[in-house]
Structures are given as structure tokens and as C-alpha cells.
Design brief:
Layout (H helix, E strand, L loop, with lengths): L27 E6 L3 H4 L1 E8 L3 E8 L13 E7 L13
Antiparallel strand pairs: 1-2, 2-3, 3-4
């Protein structure tokens, strides 16, 4: 995230300790802001985890509205994948 006035770069989310970004189509595959994000601060993520597992999760902004609270992740869907590619990932409202 870049502050338009100060041009300071800040990390909105660091999920690198959870997301599997190994070979193939892996890593953070999708991110969507809730349509009412300005009011509820909710964000949805699609990512690969562990060995061939796809996840969809919800997070909310922390006390600092410029970052997500990764410790309060709510897992919505988890699917074992048969291969390391074609794991989906797009999230849209």
C-alpha cells in the first residue's frame, strides 16, 4: 500500500508464513474487498496452503485500518487438490 501524500510503502498483509508459494500455480491467488469494505473492513482471500490444499478465507482490518489482522483469519473453504496446477483462485462480488 502506498500513502499518496508521503509516498511511504506499507504492508497491508503479510501472509507469507501461511501461504504456500512453491512451484506450480501456488501462492496468493485471489483477493477481493467486500462490497461494503469501507464500513465493515472485510477482505476475502484465495490461496494455496500446505501440500496441494486450496483455501478461501475472510479477514478484517486490524485496529490500524491500513493493515489486515492475519491472526483473526476465518477459514471459509478448504479443498484438497489432486495436482499443483489449475487451483482456481479468482474471487469476485
Amino acid at each position: 500500500m502506498i500513502d499518496p501524500e508521503s509516498r511511504t510503502v506499507r504492508t497491508f498483509l503479510d501472509h507469507s508464513n501461511i501461504v504456500n508459494s512453491g512451484p506450480g500455480e501456488a501462492g496468493l491467488l485471489g483477493l477481493a474487498f467486500h462490497p461494503d469494505y469501507a464500513d465493515n473492513g472485510r477482505v476475502f482471500l484465495s490461496y494455496t496452503w500446505g501440500n496441494l490444499v486450496s483455501r478461501v478465507a475472510e479477514m478484517s482490518v486490524s485496529a490500524d485500518p491500513d493493515s489486515l489482522d492475519a491472526s483473526a483469519e476465518r477459514l471459509l473453504l478448504q479443498v484438497d487438490q489432486p495436482a499443483g496446477n489449475h487451483n482456481g483462485g479468482q474471487i469476485d462480488f
